[in-house]
UniProtKB/TrEMBL annotation:
This is DNA-binding response regulator. The lineage of its organism: Bacteria, Bacillati, Actinomycetota, Actinomycetes, Kitasatosporales. One of its GO terms (molecular function) is DNA binding. It comes from the Bacteria. The modification 4-aspartylphosphate is found at residue 52.
Length: 219
C-alpha cells in the first residue's frame, strides 16, 4: 500500500509516517501544504492519501479542496481525511462524490492505533470509514424515525454492502443475484427511506449515512 500524507503539523506528519512505516506500509511522500500533496499524488500515484482538513495558507478548507481535486484527478484514489473537529459542511462537500474508498476521521482516532489502521485498510480496500461523531453531525434523525425498519432483510444486506463501498456489480456478486436485482433493491431502499432524486446530497451517500447512523446508535 503506497501512501501520501498531507499535514501541516510536522510532529503529527512525521509521527503518522513513522507509525505507518512501522506497520510495513510504504509512505512515499509527505507534505505540509495542499498544493504539495497534489504534486506528490501526481508524481507518486499512491493508493491512499491521508489529508488534514485545515492547511496553509488560510487554514480553512484547503485539505478538503485538495481531497476533492485529488479524487477528480484519480477517481480510484482512496482518501482518508483527518479533522480536529466535526466540520459538517466540509464533510458534505467530500461525500458528494460518493463513499467508495473514503474515510473521514477525527484526529483523536489516530491515537487509537488499531482503530486508525483498521479504518485506513478499509478505505484502501474501497470501503468506507466515517467517524461516528461525524455521522451524528451529518445525519441526525429523531428517536421515532423508523424508516430503516421498513427495509426487508435483503435490502438491509444491500445497504450494508453499499456502506462498505461496493458498487452494484460487486454487491450482486457478493449476494449471488443479478445486477438488475440489486438495482431494484436500491430503488426500493431510496423509496422506503424517502430519498428523492431532487435531494441535494447524493441518494446513495444519504442512504449509507442513515445506515451508519443506525449502526452507531445500536452500538
Amino acid at each position: 500500500m503506497r501512501i501520501v500524507i498531507a499535514e501541516d503539523d510536522p510532529l503529527l506528519r512525521e509521527g503518522l509516517a513513522l507509525l505507518l512505516r512501522a506497520e510495513g506500509l510504504d509512505v512515499v511522500a509527505t507534505a505540509g501544504t495542499a498544493d504539495g500533496i497534489l504534486d506528490a499524488i501526481d508524481e507518486h500515484k499512491p493508493d491512499v492519501a491521508i489529508l488534514d482538513v485545515r492547511m496553509p495558507p488560510t487554514h480553512t478548507d484547503e485539505g478538503i479542496v485538495a481531497a476533492v481535486e485529488a479524487r477528480r484527478r484519480r477517481p480510484d484514489l482512496a482518501v482518508l481525511v483527518l479533522s480536529a473537529y466535526v466540520e459538517q459542511s466540509f464533510a458534505t462537500d467530500l461525500l458528494v462524490g460518493g463513499v467508495t474508498g473514503l474515510g473521514y476521521l477525527l484526529k483523536e482516532r489516530v491515537g487509537r492505533v488499531e482503530e486508525f489502521l483498521d479504518a485506513l485498510r478499509r478505505v484502501a480496500d474501497g470501503g468506507t470509514a466515517i467517524d461516528p461523531d461525524v455521522v451524528a453531525q451529518l445525519f441526525t434523525r429523531s428517536r421515532d424515525d423508523t424508516r430503516l425498519e421498513r427495509l426487508s432483510p435483503r435490502e438491509r444486506d444491500v445497504l450494508a454492502l453499499m456502506a462498505e463501498g461496493l458498487g452494484n456489480s460487486a454487491i450482486a456478486e457478493r449476494l449471488f443475484v443479478t445486477d438488475g436485482a440489486v438495482h431494484k433493491h436500491i430503488r426500493s431502499i431510496f423509496a422506503k427511506l424517502d430519498l428523492s432524486p431532487t435531494d441535494q446530497m447524493d441518494r446513495r451517500v444519504a442512504a449509507v449515512l442513515r445506515y451508519l447512523d443506525d449502526v452507531r446508535r445500536r452500538t
